[in-house]
Amino acid sequence: MEDGKFSAIGNDLGEADETIDLNGRLVLPPYVDSHVHLDYYFIGQNDKVKNQSGTLFEAIDLWNSYKEGTTKEEMKDRIRDAVNEVASYGTQYIRAQTDCTDPNLAGIKAAIEVRDELKDNITIQVVAFPQNGMYSYNKDGKSGRDLVEEALKLGADCVGGIPHNEWSPEDGNKSIKEIVRLAKKYDKLIDVHCDETDDVQARFVEVLNAEIMHQNYGKQTTASHTCSFGSADDAYAFRMMGLFRQSKMNFVSCPTENLFLQGRQDTYPKRRGLTRVKEFVDKGINVAFGQDSIVDLWYPAGSGNLMNILDNGLHATQLMREEDFPRNFDLVTYNGAELMRLDDVYGLDEGKPANFIVLDAPTVFEAQRRRAECLASVRNGEYLFNKKPREYETELDVDRKTK
Ligand SMILES: [Zn+2]
Questions:
Q1: 20 to 30 A Cα–Cα from 177, which one of 24, 133, 159, 336?
Q2: Phi, psi (deg, nearest 5) at residue 123
Q3: What CATH architecture is 349-402?
């Protein structure tokens, strides 16, 4: 590494001012959390509101009353705390879904300011996310749609949406047209909370996919969650997956969140509520995993540790065939970077910023099997953190299998 960039990659690179021996540990590009709500961090532990039913829709209603009167400074503190925790596990790239259904846009302004303050250490993309809907929200003469546009003018990076939370399919469809129109107008990326429900009638993913095909905007677009696609029948799903391949639209699945939130109205058998991640992987449709929530009204746990998300996701989606293990880390690294359009800066390549993490395992398989800890996170050639490997008082030899 030189001047914060990778200058050469390989063996026997000659003399250097400083050499660090990682003892055969695994080096990966940094984790990418492609879907997380930093502005909701730890809202789940407060005395004002409690989610009794545990459902997504009660959480949305409660948030609506909670957020009244929140200030930008309060939001900035919360977002900074969230980034600190998320980064402490090795994440350096975050797509922050940020609620803009607030006439003061406190969360959006806060997220944009924190994004700019931290940009040397952490890359954050801010999504203008209308949590309470584009057309089902209206306050002080401003609709959710108006507030999305205002957030984009302030500097948000992506257009968000939530068609399944609008009042009717017509409104949901209308919101999708508007999302794509706004993205093209302001030259922004798209990331829609799409079909986050077990309702098999929720098929906004089809509408979104068609619209971006018409507008040639697939690679810039992400459909997050698409839970109902996991409940859809095969005839529909297989036709749609052919169209997703054509559009090149990206997907994000949030395994812990949706395992917890979906299937709530089922007795048994109880659905997992996840989209068809394994089929996407097999068909070359880009899909990444995200944390989504950390102790908020939607989900009472979480830490931003993407190793935990990966582990849960691999179990829930059965990605454990022999061919899966070598590429599973892509779900929390390269695939997220692709949908965030980080192609020029992301990856272990000569000339790119020297950003990487070190996991406490010798191979990708061992790292997954043992849920290996991230020991170091390096940004532009400098440590964001550097931890000592775990020590044992007794003589345990955890590497015995791979020797
Ligand atoms: Zn979300």
A1: 336
A2: -95, 120
A3: Roll (2.30)
Instruction: Please tell me the distance between residue 37's alpha carbon and the centre of ligand 1 in angstroms.
Output: 6
Q: How far is CA 267 from the centre of its chain?
A: 29
Ligand 1: centre distance to CA 185 (Å): 24
* Alpha-carbon span 342 to 31, nearest angstrom: 13
Q: In the chain, list all ranges with CATH 2.30.40.10.
A: 349-402
Distance CA 60, CA 341 (A): 29
252: CA distance to ligand 1 center in Å?
10
Tell me where in the chain the CATH 3.20.20.140 domain(s) lie: 28-339
Q: Which of 85, 149, 166, 196 is catalytic?
A: 196
Ligand 1 center to 257 CA (angstroms)? 9
> Ligand 1 centroid vs 159 CA: distance in angstroms?
13
The answer to whether the CB of 176 falls within 8 A of the CB of 134 is no
Question: CATH top-level class for 28-339?
Answer: alpha beta
Residues with CB under 5 A from ligand 1 (ion): 97, 292
Secondary structure (3-state) at 160: coil
Average pLDDT, 10 consecutive residues per value, the chain (403 residues): 96 90 96 98 85 83 84 96 98 98 96 98 98 95 97 98 97 98 98 96 97 98 97 96 98 97 93 97 98 95 98 98 98 98 97 98 96 98 94 72 53
Any idea which residue has 């409940």 for tokens? 231
DSSP state of 110: H
